Amino acid sequence: MADFGASDLDAFRTEVREWLAANYPPELRDGGAPTDPEAIWGGRRFEGSDDPQIVWMRRVAERGWTAPSWPKEYGGAGLSREQARIIEKELAAGGYRVPLASFGVWMLGPVLLEYASEEQKREHLPKIVRGEIRWCQGYSEPGAGSDLASLQTRCEDAGEHWKINGQKVWTSYADKADWCFCLVRTDTSKKHEGISFVLIDMSSPGVETRPIRLISGESPFCETFFNDVLVPKNNLVGRVNGGWDIAKRLLQYERQNISGGFGAGGGAGGVAGDLAQVAKDYVGTDEEGRLEDADLRARITRNKMDVHALQLTMARIAAEQKASNGPSAVTSIVKYAAASFAQERSELMVEAMGSQGLGWSGEGFSPDELRATRGWLRSKGNSIEGGTSEVNLNVIAKRVLGLPDPK
Amino acid sequence: MAVLSEEQSMLRDAAKSWVQEQSPVGALRKLRGDGAGLGFDPAAWREMGQMGWAGVVIPEAHGGSEFGWLSLGLVLEEMGRTLAASPLLATSAAAAALTLGGTDDQKAEWLPKLAGGEVIGALAVDEGPHHAPGKIALKAERSAVGWTLTGAKTFVLDGMAADLLVVAARTSGQPGEASGITLFLVPGDAAGLKRQALKLADSRGAANISFEGVEVRQDAALAGGLDLLDQVLDRARALLAAEMLGSASQAFETTLDYLKTRVQFGQVIGSFQALQHRAAKMYVELELARSAVEAALAALDAQAPNAAELVSLAKTRAGETFHLVSNEMVQMHGGIGMTDEHDAGLYLKRARAAEAAFGGQAFHRDRYARLQGF
């Protein structure tokens, strides 16, 4: 926004800071009452809930600040990117809890704004902003992983409805979600051009979910089965057989979002905290304050520098894209690098902890140590989920570097 | 690419077209056969002086344009693309020593001449085969007129051409101690100063210089010790990182072109996934290096408190990237990449020389860790 000067931004920052301080539920402050760990994701099950996290989310959402840059008519706050970033920074700087974690805000909403009908936008976007509906992503299938476009879940015309039959896998939190944005096959004679993008109510008859237990012992993912599930005709986004473009666009938002969570230890895998400090605590230092294990010190430093360079790259890309329209193929660069650095960080964390980094459960290990073990295992998925590292390298080679397909 | 101001874009565009037209890789090939041992073309350097490049980081009050380090980095990046040789980096680093540690008289005497390119500057810091500013032993002792310098410096970039040397010397203490270091301004024609030209693999100019009782006046000393030296070195390191980024970018693009044109097994070799993934990884490295280099230069302009950390990050990243890309350039070109006729070898040689200058990856990783108390 060219006419939005620095002094206006300063005034806005002050406004945000004061509002956050005035509206943060006291129960959420340090040492406050426990809240439902799922509450941050919102959804139908929290309708009428007075969990402080939900109260917090509702207050922020009332101002449209859970999706600050979305237009006001869809529940957003209609703010500029600079203003949205200020809200993000003030939330982090003040130590406030994230008001709402949402696949709807991160992934679905941006593509609905681009591709959906006016009616669809008015139906779904405000509920996403208000955290009333929790969404999951129906993309991968048992036979369609990296080769996503080979997906087979059938979507047939059944008069008033679409009829869906098939199976999805790696559906994050499908067992807890209210709705699913789903890739389905509407034409079996073509590959990419036979895919459509539909929105499915998970409470529909014929939908079944089954959690998948990971090597880390956690179960964030599910298998999702669709058995003659009827979906209203107007739940198809874009045109019939035109879903692949929407799917790819959404993946760019997903990769951007996933990458943001890696590395710091807050995302999928890894442990929050300063790796260097952990190493000092567990390994010890020499008289000059350096880690006693010179080899480990060098490798930890290398990883810290990798992460630092990646953070600078994300900031640079954001600055360069300020004027352009959302993420591009460069998200593959960030996703590839973020996954590899996050995995290395998790490896170094358990290595630094020594035998204390190998605990699975029970006595003899601190909660941080147990989280390090689980996080290390979970981080192996970083280079698989949201497009494997190999697929991301393919995307870079073909779309950024213009290298041809083999004959 | 950083978001640039209008003047920065103009400077970069001017540098790009001048370098491509006046100093292509072929110019470096000519220098190899040149017996003068300067390691650059004096006529080209005069033109750079006329274009104001030597004054980009010199204050306006002393004849420069004061555009800053990011701006000069853009010029060096373009020069790096064709391996264009010049004493621009060394001269700008010497100017930084004066700007940061000089008195008004010292600045007035030297900066205008440096800004115009009439005087070539150079940093004389290291005394062994590895960059080690902490280990300076060259002695500076009080004399009747000022100071007497005794000792030897190695690997002084553009040391043969330098009219003004910024010499790091020890006025007290033992090598390895942080205190007792002073920077001295020493004219290139000072009595007792002996230079030995080094013929390096990258064909650039460098010299070993011995100081056999070189007398300098009291006012030859700059204000500041190891801290000043570190700040000056950081400017040289960041500029070199920018140059290396340009060289690595060009080496990569030349290789990418080859992958798209070389046909084997009935198809271009760039269609093979084994090569595609390696090319993609190089591109990721280049993007990370660019972010680090631009952030370091911007931090120097802003005098940010974490500038030193960012400079070590930039020099490490640029070094790792140029190292990787120069090796892959040879390998992916196959036999032709091993020939002297092809440019790949020139980039490979320059990569190693630039990596070693002002501290290699191991030096800067260690420094980055130390700066963070690790």
TrEMBL record, chain A:
This protein's record includes keyword Hydrolase: no
PANTHER family to which the protein is assigned, alphabetical: ACYL-COA DEHYDROGENASE (PTHR43292), ACYL-COA DEHYDROGENASE FADE29 (PTHR43292:SF3)
Location of the Acyl-CoA dehydrogenase/oxidase C-terminal domain: 241-401
Name of the protein described by the UniProt record: Acyl-CoA dehydrogenase
Keyword Flavoprotein in annotation: yes
Domain Acyl-CoA dehydrogenase/oxidase N-terminal: 54-132
Domain of life: Bacteria
Keywords for this protein: FAD, Flavoprotein, Oxidoreductase
GO molecular function: flavin adenine dinucleotide binding; oxidoreductase activity, acting on the CH-CH group of donors
A cellular component annotation (GO) from this entry: plasma membrane
Family: Belongs to the acyl-CoA dehydrogenase family.
Cofactor(s) demanded: FAD
Residue intervals of the Acyl-CoA oxidase/dehydrogenase middle domain: 136-229
UniProtKB/TrEMBL annotation, chain B:
MF terms (GO), sorted A to Z: acyl-CoA dehydrogenase activity; flavin adenine dinucleotide binding
Cofactor(s) in the UniProt record: FAD
Signal peptide: none
Database matches in CDD domains: ACAD
Domain named Acyl-CoA dehydrogenase/oxidase C-terminal: residues: 225-370
Alphabetical keyword list: FAD, Flavoprotein, Oxidoreductase
Record domain Acyl-CoA dehydrogenase/oxidase N-terminal: where: 5-118
Keyword Cell cycle recorded: no
Keyword Zinc-finger: no
Record-annotated Acyl-CoA oxidase/dehydrogenase middle domain positions: 141-200
Family designation: Belongs to the acyl-CoA dehydrogenase family.
Name by which UniProt lists this protein: Acyl-CoA dehydrogenase
Organism annotation: Phenylobacterium deserti
